[in-house]
Design a protein that fits this description.
heterodimer; A: alpha+beta; Ubiquitin-like (UB roll); DNA polymerase, domain 1; 2 domains; 5-stranded mixed β-sheet; 5 strands; 36% helix; B: alpha+beta; Aldehyde Oxidoreductase, domain 3; Aldehyde Oxidoreductase, domain 4; 7-stranded mixed β-sheet; 35 strands; 26% helix
């Protein structure tokens, strides 16, 4: 067993972990955070995507010990103070969810994209989620949801820049 | 997003509703975007044991012996079981399968034994210590060869199996089901034809690829009751079959279906549940979880059946198809599962949405030593339309006629009779208008550059279910005038729960927000539904929900009528308020009535209101076994058409899909945004089947060679068309909830054939074997170039 210290969804934690355990299994079965899904276990489907230090990562391809010192966000960490993230709101609004199994991973890939590129093109969105397989939606409404989230966030950012503390979203 | 709704004027039940026909967010989306949604693997009960299955490495072999003694000695191992521990049969249409293989194995991946233990490591070690001796038998992987005399029999005891009456096996052969259509006099009609055009087509086995693999938890308690949590589409069918399998009363089996991460048919019927249930009976009091790996998912449960198609058409010069022979030889794989009913559905849907007076049809399901064939979105329709819709184009080209015109000339219209001689009327649905609108959306007649063209294909599908398949629902009022809505449809992504909430809200005059859908079917608590299959929910469950809501509303009116001192007929509910229709100032709010009405002095009339409803389609008649005749073989038909605009790179054969348009006659759109989601999802899944998907089997070993996402590609966001356009026609289904018919499966039916037709129109290359890969297109182009060269010389 090896001791690791990390932050997950804003909480700092220290845990003993089997060095052979994947990060996916650790999050799901040791931390009981189950929004993260296993779809293939070999880094091909993206259902297990989490954000580690700003980057979207397949948690099935990473060992838990490698997360020592890292900041991890899962879909459960997207809400802030009980309010949904703009991506979550837009996924609901645009019917970007059907069976929902890919949704947590899809949202995390989209979140990582918008964090580094607030105004992505359609092709950039497709590329960012190309490692997340969805078998239900045909992707169209997912892409529209991400575009809408980007548009809404950049509007908010513009208004915030313009009005400073006088702006309330 | 472009979308239009064409209302057929003749429709009686199409009106403007408050909730039905409007966009409303999915009732399950909040839980799915927050991580709150619990799928079966997210249920983590204390003391859960791990389970895994030992599988056959042979496609066909006698089991000589199984030695499990060493495995049982491993510390932490709680149960090691094999066929002789549970010699019970199971199967949904043919009872042809044991929980674990008994005398012999019939495909690579068939369960032979299973282990449950405290840790995954102990399970793995124990599995590796089970010694199975096999004596290999000659295997057969080709259903056509399996029909020949002397072919190895996959099920020598076929004549002894119990099967449901609609299935017609041939004893002492490999034929699991044979469905016949004999309509008119095709032999005579072929003589009158100006052209006889005969072609063969092939569809390979493909995988459903639900993002959540099959998984189940079972717990046998000290009274012997078995509770199963399963990612399944059919909780009541699972309960019924488990009770047979384990010889228990229904009350001693409970099946709970949590939220399901995609099904597409592979989670219909019964699958891995008997394995976990069997293990749990040996570990009383401990939950046992079995989650399949992606590799196991690819070939050990079920796959879409392969099909060999032969179509021979007799056509007159002016483009009327006067005779046709359709032959479908299906690869059922090692067990009949759902596949034999796909064979039946292909039979009664024989020639697609066309009016052909003289037909000879044979749909034959054959056992082989391949993975088990089963239901897949479209239930045989995508497979047969791959042949039917290319044949239409090939006829048109032979005649020098436009393929769209040929379809319009031959498609079903009021007064025509379909394959089973069922009379089509003005309420059946309008395929002609679907074709017309699809052509408009794709700009059918626009000239396009070289190597770019449009292909079109039609589709028809009916719910393939037993004629007594029934559904029920309960609507319980709560204290604030909302309802808890209970039914046993499983939410596999199709949006059923949202549609049901809208239907209930519309009927009751309340908002969707006031409807709480109890979303986990539980055979101990939620009312009966046969299964979640056949695109039947909006139609069947929708009717049951509407009836339950109406029943509750009538009870509300009974109480309110006394309280308000107005006749029941003079009452209506709008926005949660009960009004006197003739005098709107007389009103009561629902909370004042739905728990009983209390007078100022305290005395109360009525009580907590709930309503019940059920639905079974009426007057569906089994097809005649010799001719296929039935005046109404199925509950309803949904027609549609799809067109693909693509270009081909002549240097590589690579296909780029620019636009896909589709139009379906769905009766009534319940939720415009959800139905668009079904259309886009179906198109892209159809593109997967059309362009890239095929389960490849090594015929030396019987092993599937591409059981992973590395080697079995499905469409990603990078593969989708640049544009997808949908619209819907609303010819009301007279017995549908608010006029609705099913749509979930239909959207992937015509895609592969439309792609193949477009590729032909763009290049002259006709691909008759799925998938339409760049390699096949390129080879075709090279062949054409060689032929042209030879012609010049």
């Amino acid at each position: 067993m090896q001791k690791i210290t990390f932050t997950i969804n804003g909480h700092a934690e220290t845990k003993e972990v089997d060095p052979r355990m994947t990060l996916l299994k650790f999050i799901r079965e040791e931390l009981h955070i189950t929004g993260v899904k296993e779809g293939c276990g070999e880094g091909e489907c993206g259902a297990c995507t989490v954000i580690i230090d700003g980057k979207a990562v397949n948690s099935c391809l990473m060992l838990a010990v490698e997360a020592d010192g890292c900041n991890i966000t899962t879909v459960e960490g997207l809400q802030k103070n009980g309010e949904l993230d703009i991506l979550q709101k837009k996924f609901i609004e645009h019917n970007a969810v059907q069976c929902g199994f890919c949704s947590p991973g899809m949202l995390m890939s989209a979140k990582a994209l918008l964090t580094k590129n607030s105004n992505p093109t359609e092709d950039e969105i497709k590329e960012a989620i190309s490692g997340n397989i969805c078998r239900c939606t045909g992707y169209k409404q997912i892409i529209e949801a991400i575009q809408a989230a980007a548009a809404a966030s950049s509007l908010v950012a513009r208004l915030r820049r313009k009005y400073g503390k006088h702006f309330c979203d | 997003m472009e979308s239009t709704f064409v209302i057929n004027e003749s429709s009686a039940d199409i009106a403007d509703y408050t909730v039905v026909g409007k966009v409303t967010p999915r009732v399950d989306s909040l839980s799915k975007v927050t991580g709150a949604a619990k799928y079966v693997d997210d249920i983590q009960m204390q003391g859960t044991l791990f389970a895994k299955v030992l599988r056959s490495p042979h496609p066909h072999a006698e089991i000589v012996s199984i030695d499990m003694e060493e495995a049982k000695k491993i510390p932490g191992v709680r149960a090691v079981i094999c066929g002789s521990d549970f010699p019970h049969n199971t199967g949904i249409y043919h009872v042809d399968q044991y929980i674990f293989a008994m005398e012999k194995v019939r495909y690579v991946g068939e369960p032979v034994a299973a282990v449950a233990a405290d840790t995954e490591e102990a399970v793995d070690l124990a599995l590796s210590l089970i010694k199975v001796k096999y004596k290999p038998l000659k295997a057969n992987f080709d259903p056509q060869a399996g029909l020949k005399k002397g072919a190895p029999l996959v099920h020598p005891n076929l004549h002894k199996y119990y099967h449901v009456s609609a299935i017609n096996p041939t004893p002492h052969t490999n034929i699991a089901n044979h469905f016949k259509i004999r309509k008119g006099d095709p032999a005579e009609a072929f003589k009158k034809a100006d052209y006889i055009i005969e072609n063969r087509f092939h569809v390979p086995q493909i995988q459903h690829v639900p993002m959540e693999t099959h998984g189940a938890i079972a717990l046998t308690d000290q009274t012997g009751k078995i509770t199963v949590w399963s990612s399944c589409q059919s909780p009541f069918t699972v309960r019924y079959l488990l009770s047979h399998c384990f010889q228990k009363k229904l009350r001693d089996i409970r099946v709970i279906a949590p939220i399901i991460g995609g099904g597409f048919g592979c989670k219909a019927g019964i699958n891995i549940e008997p394995i976990v249930a069997a293990l749990s009976t040996k570990c009383v009091g401990r939950p046992i979880k079995l989650m399949l790996t992606r590799e196991e998912e690819m070939y050990t449960v079920v796959v879409r059946q392969a099909c060999h198609i032969r179509i021979k058409s007799g056509v007159t010069k002016d483009g009327k198809i006067i005779a046709q022979e359709n032959e479908y030889i299906w690869d059922c794989g090692a067990y009949a599962s759902y596949g034999v009913n796909v064979v039946r559905a292909a039979g009664y849907s024989l020639c697609g949405p066309y009016n052909i007076d003289n037909l000879k049809g044979d749909s034959i399901g054959v056992y082989t030593n391949r993975p088990v064939g089963s239901a897949f979105r479209g239930f045989g329709m995508s497979e047969i339309h791959w042949g039917i819709e290319q044949q239409m184009d090939m006829i048109a080209h032979k005649l020098g006629m436009d393929p769209l015109e040929l379809r319009q000339k031959n498609c079903l219209r009021p007064g025509s009779k379909n394959a089973t001689s069922q009379l089509v009327d003005e309420n059946t649905g309008n395929i002609s208008k679907c074709l017309e609108d699809t052509a408009k959306h794709i700009d059918y007649n626009k000239p396009r550059e070289k190597f770019r063209a449009v292909g079109i294909a039609s589709a028809q599908k009916a719910p393939a279910m037993p004629n007594n398949a029934t559904t029920s629902a309960v609507a319980k009022f709560n204290e604030t005038g909302g309802i808890e809505l209970m039914f046993s449809a499983t939410e596999i992504g199709q949006g059923s729960h949202t549609a049901m909430a809208q239907i209930a809200a519309e009927e009751l005059g309340i908002s969707v927000d006031a409807v709480s859908v109890i979303s986990w079917p539980d055979t101990d608590y939620t009312p009966y539904d046969w299964q979640t299959v056949a695109s039947k929910l909006t139609y069947s469950c929708g009717n049951a929900v509407r009836m339950a809501a109406r029943d509750a509303k009538n009870k509300i009116f009974t109480i309110a009528s006394r309280a308000m001192e107005v006749p029941e007929e003079d009452l209506e509910i709008k926005n949660g308020i009960i009004y006197c229709k003739s005098n709107h100032s007389k009103k009561l709010s629902l909370p004042q009535v739905c728990m009983g009405y209390q007078y100022p002095d305290g005395h109360t009339i009525g009580g907590a209101v709930s309503g019940m409803g059920f639905f079974t389609p009426e007057n569906c008649i089994n097809c005649d076994p010799e001719t296929g005749y039935s005046p109404k073989p199925v509950a309803n038909w949904t027609f549609g058409a799809q067109a693909v605009d693509l270009s081909v790179d002549p240097r590589t054969g690579q296909i780029t899909i620019h636009k896909v348009a589709c139009v379906y006659d769905v009766g009534k759109v319940i939720n415009p945004q959800c139905i668009e989601g079904q259309a886009y999802g179906g198109i892209v899944q159809g593109m997967g089947a059309g362009l890239m998907e095929e389960l490849v089997l090594d015929e030396k070993t019987g092993k599937v060679l591409n059981p992973s996402f590395v080697d079995y590609k499905v469409p990603t966001a990078m593969d989708i068309p640049k544009e997808m356009v949908t619209s819907f026609i609303e010819t009301a289904q007279l017995d549908g909830a608010f006029g609705a018919r099913g749509i979930g499966e239909h959207t992937m039916i015509p895609t592969p054939a439309a792609i193949a037709n477009a590729v032909y129109n763009a290049t002259g290359v006709r691909i008759q074997t799925l998938p339409v890969t760049a390699e096949k297109v390129l080879k075709g182009l090279e062949r054409l170039a060689t032929e042209a060269q030879r012609h010049r010389e």
